[in-house]
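Bug report (template v2)

What were you trying to do?
Predict the complex of my protein with aspartyl-adenosine-5'-monophosphate.

What happened?
Run completed; filing so the output is reviewed.

Input:
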Amino acid sequence: MRVLCKDIAGSNGQEVEVKGWIHRIRDLGGVCFIMLRDRSGMVQLVFESAPDVTLESVVSVEGTVQENKKAPDGYEIQVSTMKVLSRAAADLPIQVNGDPDKLGIEAILDNRVISLRNPKIRSIFHLQSNILAYFAEYLRSQDFTEIKSSKLIGSGSEGGTGLFEVEYFDRKVYLAQSPQLYKQTMVASGMERVFEIGAAYRAEKHDTPRHLNEYVSLDVEMGFIESDQDLMDLETGILKHIFGRIAEYDGSILEQWGASVPSQEALDHIPRISHDEAKAILSERLGKRVFELNPEGERELCEWALEKHGVELVFVNAFPRKKRPFYTYPDGMKTMSFDLLFRGLEITSGSRRINEYDMLVENIKRFGLDPAGLAGYLEVFKYGAPPHGGFAIGLERFTQKVLGLSSIKEASLFPRDRKRVAP
Ligand code: AMO
């Protein structure tokens, strides 16, 4: 019966079968060491002479476990038989068993699936899978229901960012920029508390280390809130849970990347400052008048938060009305909205929403939009919608910042940017 590489340790003298990929071959003449890799890790195989096999071939091996202090985990397998299940061609497009930093992002993405054979690169997506589980786990514990809304929409929700048009039989629809309007209506449906994990599409032309044209949005929407403060409380709870779980279960991945997560104590002290305060802090620190929060400002504000509050995150709220989408609840000339910055990057936007029909119609017009185009959404607010709000965390940005990846593209399995639609 097959055992995993990680389970070899301690089973001295046992006959085992392991299956996996050939990671490294070291032929010393008279003895040949091969590292075999499976999903759990690696084990050293010992042969009397070099077998006829290539790097990355898939094999099935039988042999006896032996203790050997010089072997990577203190144990190795003396091979009796090896079967090649799938022979790899010798011209590997990238080196799998080297340091991923030496490969370069374009080579990694051009050869995405082969690049994932490298355990360090693959670990990004094991962590991402866990982040999704921790996010859902916390929200379910708070009585949130998971929804899946359509990604084909009739009108945009996030003014200022482009839409991808899709031919839909005899008319045009768009790829969803966000599940925004659906998640709000689900609060009004009586669900009260919902979350969604799904793809979001942005037809933005920039090519930056923080933008994708398709990303995964972790969306939350909650009814019966008073203000954006309730939402920042909820997001703090989510982050404490996710970071706590990562620290508990994903230490080996953090170690591979030389990364760490904020402590539970630090997360109790995330500062909440207004957009005006943020600009004042930045003007003072940068020695020039700052009018808006740009990437340089986001980095500097996180430095400030770390110096003053001992935490690498900062909430910025009370953005001006014109800077936020039409659904955002106004508060004088400002709004009940916020962003969360983490290690120099915006990872979340959120707000209380307008839940009063007349106010919503008026605001839609104020933004130069046509209420008729949003009729289905608007109708919901005519018939009883609670005060509510929510936010969205970008999965790839979050992963990027947890592990310290230099580009967001490294945190997307199959990133889509202006040039890349394959693999
Ligand atoms: P916003 O447009 O700010 O807000 O997006 C929320 C979060 O999603 C991520 N994100 C992106 N990640 C990668 N590439 C992109 N092009 C990209 N655009 C956004 C970021 C960002 O903070 N409907 C609102 C959310 C809400 O109010 O509930 C919205 O979509 O991490």
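What did the reviewer find?
The chain has two domains: 5-86, 113-411. The chain has a mean pLDDT of 97.
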